[in-house]
Automatic annotation (TrEMBL):
Keywords of the record: Hydrolase, Nucleotide-binding, Signal
Name of the featured protein: 5'-nucleotidase C-terminal domain-containing protein
N-terminal signal peptide: 1-26
Keyword Nucleotide-binding: yes
Family: Belongs to the 5'-nucleotidase family.
SUPFAM superfamilies in UniProt: 5'-nucleotidase (syn. UDP-sugar hydrolase), C-terminal domain (SSF55816), Metallo-dependent phosphatases (SSF56300)
Superkingdom of origin: Bacteria
Length: 533
């Protein structure tokens, strides 16, 4: 989608080190607001290093709940000094990504959020990873509303009354309507179960905007867990949206920060106004702040914005640090157990776009664990962190593999396997988790080719040599149970499996066993997955 001229103007006027000046309003605003926003925290309470691996005391640590809370407190103080009311929002995916979630199932996240001052959160797909029961337990502990306008809970009594389509907050003389939406692909990305349905996000937003504006003038914020690309489409298609606070795609929208994909805010023209879109990457490593001057009709008269990186120099919030320490205490003995030593760290960088070392490691571990398998395929999005150089502990492994998935195996013909690979590379460039990391095979692909023709040469290693994939031959494939059941769009692993078994050993046990038995192996990229020249 082509962004408007306003987006280009926003980018050209952005100041990298200071808050950009607000645009001059046509009339005095009736309300002045500061939105503090985060998204896709993924249980990273102790922060991460630059490669998203668990923090170590001998290296600078980025993010972390206590420092993030400290930055939020500073943002609140600054806004109050400037005469602005503050609204603190969360774009979803608090769950899954560290041992804190694996062990405590949302209780640590809830405790931190309550002290941190979260005022509304949309549900991300990972809030459904352990089904409605865990989500319901989490929801009942919160002091703020969980939102998802396109989630149908009518057949799930556990969530009755716990999720709202929107909330209204009166703040600083303004009426703010916050509509939440969750990606419609949640059933393919997570485990919500058969009782929940995810409807059209666009229709849900449109319907709830009408309901909110029918009452009186309202500033509309869409708290979205759809991803940046879908947020832009939503903004361009629907009238009435003032701001989209986004999540899901882990996109950094910032002015003057390395790795930023677009300005903060990014502006897109809708049928009746400019929509401001913001998102703050992931893992609590950034905090976004969007300043708004609002007119009497609820429209934005002026805006400014910045994103702050949560660096080690930010003073941690003592109350939040104490909560993290409390929930960390029972985890220490478990996660400190050493399992391997690595000469070099393995970064998560690039695992959703191409071959990566930690993806090779996981695929080789799967292949070694299933003696009858000829090929291993695993999804890059199933790997949630890198591994550090030096001693690797159980805690590190659990951070890489937080989903409690199991090894799964199936028999599938070559033609259907090629379809699975086509699915795997179909979202290159969109930060999708389905990208295939493989062992026992190699292939080339062209992301610019038409759908169904992106996968080019495919070869399988049989009897020590690589031979072309035979579309009619049945191959034994090892993967994880999430993918085998059709997750991440791998429907061919479900519908075309000639036989299948999902209840293998836990993936973390598989990876630990492989690391222990292959202490000197190398998993550096070797060209097994390559872009066609």
């Amino acid at each position: 989608m082509t962004l408007s001229r306003r987006a280009l103007l926003s980018a050209s006027l952005a100041l990298p080190l200071a808050m950009p000046a607000l645009r001059r309003a046509a009339a005095d605003p009736v309300a002045r607001l500061a939105l503090l926003h985060m998204n896709d925290f993924h249980s990273k309470h102790e922060g991460t290093d630059a490669g998203s691996a668990s923090c170590r005391t001998d290296k600078p640590c980025l993010g972390g709940s206590a420092r993030l809370a400290g930055a939020m407190a500073m943002g609140r103080r600054d806004a109050t000094t400037e005469g602005r009311a503050v609204l603190q929002l969360d774009g979803g995916d608090q769950f899954m990504g560290s041992l804190f979630y694996t062990a405590h199932k949302g209780r640590a996240e809830s405790a931190v959020q309550r002290v941190m001052g979260t005022e509304a959160m949309t549900l991300g797909n990972h809030e459904f990873d352990n089904g409605p029961a865990v989500l319901a337990d989490y929801a009942r502990t919160l002091s703020f509303p969980l939102l998802s306008a396109n989630l149908d809970t009518s057949k799930e009594p556990l969530l009755a009354g716990l999720v709202k389509p929107y909330t209204v907050i009166e703040r600083g003389g303004a009426r703010i309507g916050i509509v939440g939406v969750t990606t419609e692909t949640t059933p393919q990305l997570s485990s919500p179960g058969p009782t929940l349905a995810f409807k059209s996000a666009a229709e849900a937003v449109e319907r709830n905007i009408a309901a909110l504006r029918a009452e009186r003038p309202t500033t509309i914020i869409v708290l979205s867990h759809l991803g940046f690309a879908e947020d832009q489409k939503l903004a361009a298609a629907l009238p009435g949206i003032d701001v989209i606070v986004g999540g899901h795609s882990h996109t950094l929208l910032a002015n003057g920060l390395p790795g930023a994909e677009s300005p903060h805010p990014t502006l897109v023209d809708s049928p009746d106004r400019a929509v401001r879109i913001v998102q703050a990457a992931c893992y609590g490593r950034y905090l976004g702040r969007l300043e708004l001057d609002l007119n009497a009709d609820g429209r934005v008269a002026a805006h400014a914005g910045e994103v702050r990186e949560i660096t080690p120099d930010i003073a941690p919030d003592e109350k939040v640090a104490a909560i993290v320490a409390e929930y960390a205490a029972p985890l220490e003995a478990w996660r400190r157990r050493p399992v391997a030593t690595l000469a070099e760290g393995l970064s998560l960088q690039g695992c959703r776009e191409g071959e990566c070392a930690i993806g090779n490691l996981m695929a080789e571990a799967l292949l070694a664990a299933e003696p009858t398998a000829e090929i291993a395929v695993t999804n890059g999005g199933g790997l949630r962190a890198g591994l550090p150089a030096g001693t690797v502990t159980w805690g590190d492994v659990l951070t890489v593999l937080p989903f409690s998935n199991t090894l799964a195996s199936l028999t599938i013909r070559g033609g259907a396997l090629r379809e699975a690979l086509e699915n795997g590379i179909s979202k290159v460039g969109e930060n999708a988790g389905r990208f295939p990391q493989v062992a026992g095979m190699r292939f080339t692909f062209d992301p610019a080719a038409p759908a169904g023709q992106r996968v080019r040469e495919v070869q399988v290693r049989l009897d020590g040599r690589f031979v072309p994939l035979d579309p009619d031959r049945a191959y034994r494939v090892v993967t994880n149970n999430f993918m085998r059941r059709g997750g991440d769009g791998y429907v061919s692993f479900q519908k075309d499996a000639l036989e299948a078994y999902d209840a293998g050993p836990a993936l973390e046990d598989t990876l630990v066993n492989y690391l222990e038995t292959h202490p000197n192996a190398s998993w550096a990229p070797d060209g097994r997955v390559a872009r066609a020249s």
